[in-house]
Amino acid sequence: MTAYVIRRLWQMIPTLAGVILLIFFLFNWVGGDPAQVLAGKISNPEQIANIRKQLGVDQPYWYQLWVFVQQVFTFDFGRSWSTNEEVSRILLTRVGPTLTIMVPVLLLETTLAVLFAIMVAYVRGSLTDRAIMVICTTAMSISFLVYIIVGQWLFGFILGWFPVQGWSESYWRNLTNYAPLPIMLAIFVGLAPQLRLFRSFFLEEINQDYVRTARAKGLPEKKVMLKHVLRNALIPILTNVGIHLPGVFVGSFLLEVFFSIPGLGREIVTAVNRSDFPVIKAVTVYLAMLTMIVNLLVDVTYKLVDPRVSFK
Amino acid sequence: MSSVVSNYSLPAPQESPGLWTLAWRRLLGDRVGLVCLAIVATYLAMMMASWAGLVARDWNKEKGVSYANPAFLAGAENLEAREVTNRDFASKAKPVDLSDIDPLAPRYKEWEERAAKIAVTEVKRSETLPFGGDKWGRDVLEKAVKGSEVSIFVGLTAALFATMIGTVLGAMAGYWGGKVNDFLEWFYNIFTSIPYILLILAFAAVFKRGLDTIIVILALTGWTGIYRLVRAEYIKHCGREYVKAAQAIGASHLSRMFVHILPNASHVILVQLSQHVVSFIKAEVILSFLGLGVPVDMVSWGTMLAEAQNELVIGKWWQLFAAGASMAILVTAFSMLTDSLRDALDPKLK
Predict the structure, then answer these.
(1) Which end of chain B, N or C, is surrounded by fewer C-beta atoms within 10 Å?
(2) pTM of the full predicted structure?
């Protein structure tokens, strides 16, 4: 087990190096001269040279790459090009609101999807099952944008159940006042595809021999479904949740933009619009690291869920 | 010797139907799949017609009053439009007479004469449009048709490019194995370790805005899933007899990769292509909404939704409905068609 974890960590090094190279290539090479963007329309060559010097883009590429590597490992990306705020501070202050929205979303969505999926899978082939599947397919085809626009308008503006948008300093006020509507919309949108997927996982297990055996020896249906089928279907479900986990930190940037939640997702969109490269670079590198670690954690939890899994 | 053989009169060999013939037959038997195919074909035809300028050519003309009602709501009150008309009326009222203090007063007459020479054509704006109008009185229905052109075009081309990248890289990794495989796997790991949305936004940050950019971004970020599946197919097929036989008769590496193995993996690629069209159409709508997609002088479903957000507050729902519904119908039909395609091509699954 320890050997496995160490080997996996060791294998991350080339991938991380690749991520750093890719981001460096994108922002320091393809991105062109940031001084031109920052100096604006009225600028003279002297000003541009000054800005270039300030940003360090007048240095040779190998030196810039070295600076970037140092930045990654010292957590010091300097200051934002547009607001002059420290990048590390931006990241730390923006993670909170994003997690306030996304952690409840992930928990509720997964629980609801598993519950509904096991119910639908139990009555597979029936009219209920088919009706729910048709509803899911239709719900999935409507753009997330339409859900947000209509949801915000209906629940915030017309019915007035929730504030249309906003955020406050107090955590509880956020969670009880501003977060419910975005959380609800995110679950509403995310539920349909998850439900469809999890249903297929359950269906695969329901047709297995061990289910027939369990029924044959007279176990009640509840026990068959919740103990035997659910446990065996947990592996693919876990993988699926693991895939979604890193996305939790980016949050749903659309929700954050619409509800003016000061989270990471909105920060990235703003940074993209302002060509604020340090912010995007920092977020991308750290989220890539996080994704790799989450993947490792998911693989380790397989062992907890299924003792048959062995690490080679 | 040969004359002896030809003396036997063999019955003409019955040609057994190939994969595609069989798949087509299965698809023909699938009623839902056929309906979806028809819907998708209609959208494609509409897109081509719009591209050729047969329909929705003057989507940008302001034909109706501001926020013109849809034809089926002809009687409903339209406060916004009335406000605009009132404003026009007010501007035509006689201005305050300043001729005794204005030093330019002696030239009033000259100006009036010159102004009279310029022909002003009053465009009669209609009160209603077939499916309502937007803020500038443009026909929402024509906008939706024109918008489909951009959205479907982006989805199709980006999916084609992504599939091409994924197929070529996957074929190389699966066929050559070894060092090539290691290198490409490394490349794949880099792209998949960055959350997909973040990858798109990072690419969008460094490229300029435009239709071609959005296609490039989606293609460069979306190839990973296809790569993985194609690679698996190639690993499976590489050791099979028919590939060995091709090697024995002297087929080159390239020929074995793309003439012999590719047709056997093509059903996987086709299903993937179709899935990616759907997800790229959705992605284009969101990117355009954020202002990272199509330029302002073009219309796509995403820019329509961006406008619709403010319209909904004053009760003008038709633009939201037109864009949302035309996208939803296409996406539903396309994803159900993908399911039918998969069933038709691989009857073992289901």
Answers:
(1) N
(2) 0.81
